[in-house]
Structures
1.
Amino acid sequence: MTIRRSGLTLAAMPALLCALATAQQPLHTDTTAGSVPEVYKPTPSFDLTSIDKSANPCDDFYKFACGHFAANHPIPADQGATNSFYSLANVETQELRGILEKAEVNGSGRSPNEQKIGDYYHACMDEAGINQKGLTPIEPLLKRIDSMSTEQLPAIVGDMQRMGISVFFSYGEQQDFKDATKQIAEIDQGGLGMPEKDFYLRTGPKDVELRKDYVAFVTKILTLSGASPSEAATQADAIMALETSLAKASMGVTERRDPEKVYHLVPVATVADVFPEGVYSKFETAVHSPHVTELNDTNPAYLPAMIKIVSATDLPTLKAYLRFHLISAFSGNLPKPYDEATFDFYSRDLRGVKVQQARWKRCSSAVNHSIGEALGQVYVKQYFAGDSKAKMLQMVGDIEHAMGQDIDQLDWMSPETKVKAHVKLAGIANKIGYPDHWRDYSALSVKPEDAVGNAMRADEFENDRELNKIGKPVDHGEWGMTPPTVNAYYDPSMNDINFPAGILQPNFYDPKVDDAVNYGHIGAVIGHELTHGFDDEGKKFDAKGNLRDWWTPEDTRKFTAKTDCLVNEYSNFTVAGDQHVNGKLTLGENTADNGGLLLAYMAYMERAKKDNIDPSQKLDGYTQPQQFYIAWAQNWCANDRPESVRTQVLTDPHSPDKFRSNGPIVNQPAFASAFSCKSGSPMVPAKSCRVW
Ligand SMILES: [Zn+2]
């Protein structure tokens, strides 16, 4: 949790948590079907083929707007789900492939960045070379682990964390929650191979099965790397016991949403003293941290428990744990059997994916993940139309204006708090497309035949870049997502909203369609990110990005009653039979979806007035407001595998797609008149929720 950001969807950083997935009744869906397409196309901006005219929009708007989507869009065998985020991401990965295949061709004409992205891709694509090398690229570190004494453990943990492998705990940099001008170190829980704490502790049959799958996966990795089957099985059980103890000492995903609960600024000695003497400074040196005087100990109960657990674990188990995590982390660039074992657990067991993605897709994503601003520079030149930035700025302006009006109209907020809410709104910075200043990769060495080495050096480069920020002034131009990313985020410490070039493409933004459709798509996305500044987390940060209460207690009380309404509404939604949405975990995102849709609608109606557009004017038989709401719902048309939905509901702060569509719809006053729905119909209930 280096930086707390509220993305539109979960960033697909670790393969196990790709949360663009959604819930959907498995009606006419054959989830085993779906070959992998050769060529990708985005979903149409206004998708008439998904509309089910036999469904009554007042009864179930998702069924009306998306009813035919699943039948028309079988889930490709290499995905856990499909929706418009996946479709656009596939189109862009295809575009990245074109850029990378060109950059891959060795020639003196390449710029330094083209050399890096081309050679990174080339090495990653060289499956034959990768298979032939076996474990050789990680052999030096494996040998150090195998021969390690307890005294050498802290340096090895530091070296591995520098490669992005958070064994036992994690360490990084963040803006100080209470002084956003400062960048500080943070130490956090970590060390788990399954998605989060409760995967180790829940007792249902699916959970027990997944734990068996995980132990089988660990056993497989250890066997492949040289342990005898019985030795590997014993070690895997011991690793499971070790991680279960770490999980018990960890905070859960819902609790971690509260910034107060994960902020404990302490002198570094407070943390160092928890470790046996001398251990902390060895770790600090190995991880390449500057020496700090204070840091955020996110979960103060965790470190003492972790030290106790590690001290009570025998050395062979600690070695097996490190060995497993090292191999698992680099498995994508190791011989096929390692890669397949990792796929089997993280993609097949956790998300129901049937086949591994094509190598070109994974390598294109890997370049984007590792050196994304080098790749992004070429990407925006080729694919980011200049005029989309101007149009985006106009829409952002319209929606911020709507937020200002919305604040003025609230009947529950005191004038005092309203003044401060306006200050916060005015303080939000808008970032669109790509950074003004690109990241400098000149110190990073990328070689054409060294897939593992490239990944390691890129991770180390990124670790060092992050930790180097400690003690320095904040760079407000920095981006937390790469330009080709199909996503968006709000960062409470920066107080900025960010829209990468990747999401400013059809179907989210399309210069060829009516404003009504664009405001329902990207307009609501803008409203979503803006509302994050004022959701249950965002409200705790002020205009300057500091965790500081600017609300009167009475206004907070009224706000909480309103968000409780959303918690109840969403907790009643069920997926995959009887699994309930976690209303508390998803509260921030649900607040943002509800506020975002309302603000986008207000902004659209103003825009239509300014541009003399008659709202009753029809396209394909739908009025402008109807087009707006259909576009909104179609942001979330989805088809997904049950495993994928299950993992999403357990880990993801975003609600399943169907509820991202209908949850806010039932709370929109203008929806009923747009579709002439009678009050009391399922989409216009007598009681609804409204925060913003
Ligand atoms: Zn969000």
Note: The pocket of zinc ion is lined by residues 6-8, 528, 532, 589, 592 (CB under 6 Å).
2.
Amino acid sequence: MDRPTSQRPIVHPYRRHTPGTQPEFLYEPYRSTITRSPRKPLIFLPHTLSETTGPVYGHDDVAEADHDLTLQHSGEPLGERIIVSGRVLDSNGRPVPNALVEIWQANAAGRYAHAKDQHPAPLDPNFSGAGRALTDQTGAYHFVTIKPGPYPWLNHYNAWRPAHIHFSIFGRAFLSRLVTQMYFPGDPLFAFDPIFQSVPDEKARQRMISRFDLETTQPQWATGYKFDIVLRGEEATPFET
Ligand SMILES: [Fe+2]
């Protein structure tokens, strides 16, 4: 934000998304978009000072251990221990420090610790499936967790979600919040998943897939995946609808 001689601030709006790089609001194979997608043309509102600068969140109550989903109970959860790390970047590729990154996921058997998930896979008493972290000065975050399993859903016949971790990231302001899903490389369910396929652009879809990273892996302890997140602009990570 600059301040010219008139003392009225100049607001630099965020870049809009490139067409095709975000999911369509209406994607009929993903059935719930049929009832919740807008029926009228969108009205683009100008980005004003309040959207581009605020609010500023206090992060005091994020504890250091919140990033480790394997230490939240008396025993260790079952499954493949993984480290997920990456950086949060803005539309100009600059790191976003102090961004609040929150994740939630199913356990290794593909079951959520949630009353609405009643499919016949075991719950894990040592895994709740939620964590959070703040990015450091380089925009970096990391989590220790368990690789989630795929799970069935009722969208269509024999529907299974590819293994994924849900992410919510707050940048500097409301308009730089991103809610998305991180996938794992080589999942055979990508071709059948209407949530993944609702992003039309192939390159943009690839930005939702983490990459296996041997440097992140720790010997005798955990495999590692990298997942960088771009909040807005042409290289933005796709939102979920
Ligand atoms: Fe999910």
Note: The chain has one domain: 31-231.
3.
Amino acid sequence: MAGRYDAIIIGAGHNGLVTACYLAKARYKVLVLERRYIVGGACVTEETFPGFKVSTAAYVNSLFRPEIVRDLRLADYGFASLERIPSSFSPFQDGRYLMLGADGDLNRREISKFSSKDAENYPKYEEMLSRVASVIEPTLLMTPPNILRPGIGGMWKMLQLARSFQGLGSHLGEAIEVLTGAARPILDRWFESEQLKATLATDAVIGAFASPSTPGTAYVLFHHVMGETNGKKGVWSYVKGGMGGLTQALAKAAKDLGVEIRTEAEVSKILIRDGQAAGVVLKNGDEFHAKKVATNLDPHLTFEKLIEPKELPADFLANIKRINYDSASLKINVALSELPNFTVCPGTDVGPQHRGTIHICPDQDYIERAFDDAKYGRPSANPILECTIPSSVDSSIVPPGKHLMSMFIQYAPYKLKEGTWDDHREKFADRCFDILNEYAPNFKKSVIARQIVTPADLEKTFNLTGGNIFHGSMLLNQLFLFRPVPGYADYRTPIKNLYICGSAAHPGGGVMGTPGLNAAREMMKRW
Ligand SMILES: Cc1cc2nc3c(=O)[nH]c(=O)nc-3n(C[C@H](O)[C@H](O)[C@H](O)COP(=O)(O)OP(=O)(O)OC[C@H]3O[C@@H](n4cnc5c(N)ncnc54)[C@H](O)[C@@H]3O)c2cc1C
């Protein structure tokens, strides 16, 4: 079997679908090839337990760019964001709890329970993050200059960026610290209450193989506060129908624009003729040809699995092999017969304690100790739990009266010192359940079913190298000019007409759609 297209997109993650839509909107003939039975990659809804629509991997949204929602009319295809008010709930063993959200008065009241000084500082801390965002957000939709061959255009972009940093004036130092430093010293300087600091610090380690005292984690924290929901900055939401509500809307938009999408179509080789990408070969031998090819896969898969080493410059391949995929994230999806009844905030009817992210993490030292285990190849004895219950605002994803919980857990190192994840999975999940049960004693008996997604499963099911949820770590040496590797941050590769359109490219992982949009723009230049 063979076919001819203007562009082939390898992988139907949300980014691949975004690239496909923008190309098709410009009237190119596009084919998307996806290895799984379903599109969406790590942004997907699956009926894991009968009647329960589970967001198997990604579980909350705020980063997805509103420009893309508008351009592709995703609301018309069923995409809707459901706000979470408040956005977080942290119960503590001393009988207190902390709720935070977009409401300044609520934040002041809640933080005052722990420190009136912190309550005063919190809006100033948020202003500081907004100042940094004012410089960084415009870069999300920009193609980073090629640091090795910047040309006049690249030099101009760098100059403009330097100018916008200059515009921060006396705030430049704090911005540089956020972009390069560790989260913990920043939080320690701003606040005194461990309860507040621990709640904020969890954002700094999401998906990272790092503790809040590791340099680079302040950016990870910042990355997680950069988005918006329905025009409200920093507000995270559930997607109606689960995260697949977004990718199904993208797939419908793509089909209406004429994109051909094939599932269960695993690409095994990128065809290269005279140094140029010419098409792909599937695992079953089918061949498809195109003028341009874009890969939604991480660089290890693209350049070490789908392309012969002889086709690539040795120094480029060496840089690709240097990319860090360390990870320690595990997810448990749980079907529940009733909502958790928290000792510090009782009730099994939906309440504010159920709507946002439930942080189980008493203080920053707890995170450090949890990471120490991971550093030495052990699952954390006392892991950090981030629980969300999307059914608290979306009854369409569960049978009547039932609920769904997503537990995102750190640290569960991909590289174990002893045994495999098959040896550890049930015991580790039991430990997580015991911890949550200490805060909500009805939790364990309310469990109907559970799905444990270990780092090994993330690699096997979603093809995420090393279980890394971002297609490569989001620490400074792998961001902006250097993502995925220096000299190739402009979505191009050493192979002519082969582009990178997924999270491996700037601005990185998370359900943003930006790498996909930026790559489409580059692919269309001079075409
Ligand atoms: C457990 C988990 C929780 C997360 N939570 C959040 C969250 O709450 N919010 C958030 O914003 N982000 C979250 N993330 C991160 C976010 O989901 C990812 O960074 C993002 O979805 C990646 O999108 P992508 O399109 O770049 O790549 P992917 O989603 O990885 O898509 C790549 C696609 O390529 C396909 N593929 C792979 N190999 C082949 C091949 N050889 N041939 C054809 N197809 C192939 C894959 O099956 C996949 O569909 C989470 C990720 C994980 C894993």
Note: The first helix runs from residue 14 to 25.
4.
Amino acid sequence: MHLIPTQDEVVQLLRHTGAIRDGHFDYPNGLHATEYIQVQLAMRYYQHAKVLSVGLSRLLRANPEIRAIIPELSIVTPDTGGLPVAYGMCEALRAHQVYWADRKDEGSPMRFRQYLEQKPGEKVLLVDDILRSGRNLAELKRLVESTGAEVVGLAVIVYQPTPKTIDFGPLPFYYLAKLDALYYTDAGSCDLCKRGEPTEKVWI
Ligand SMILES: [Zn+2]
């Protein structure tokens, strides 16, 4: 394994731990796909979690603008799935702090815990295990920026773009592996559905 794992090494690790699955998947947003990724299955193993988060932190350290602000950097994640990535990166980078958002109920807006407030001008790196639709990370970005903090970058282990992925514009974006599943925009256009292959519903 390289200090920054290659795309092939990441894919091999994810397959080996069952985090990449082949089949016919029905996503909550209506997309059908030939591949499903659940990075948490790989993050069960501490050594794997460490290899991935340290590798990702090395990509960030290579950016001189980010390297200069590491001591004051907050690493913030929208979901529990991002926590092992966030803590692993914070340890490797020696960044300032880690925190995360959550929701009162499914469908309610994202929020931070009581008394957790950003300082105006606080430098924030958004982190998650995977960027797929980008919906959670986009909501987190709005929430962080609404308090006057500054989002300086976005980092994920796996980037799996879909036809519905949100564009984050010029924000520096880091990932260890980019995976292109074959996506169909709905059941009507899905070749696997046409062949009558049974679907597997995925939650997220
Ligand atoms: Zn289908």
Note: The pocket of zinc ion is lined by residues 24, 32, 184, 187, 190, 192-193, 199 (CB under 6 Å).
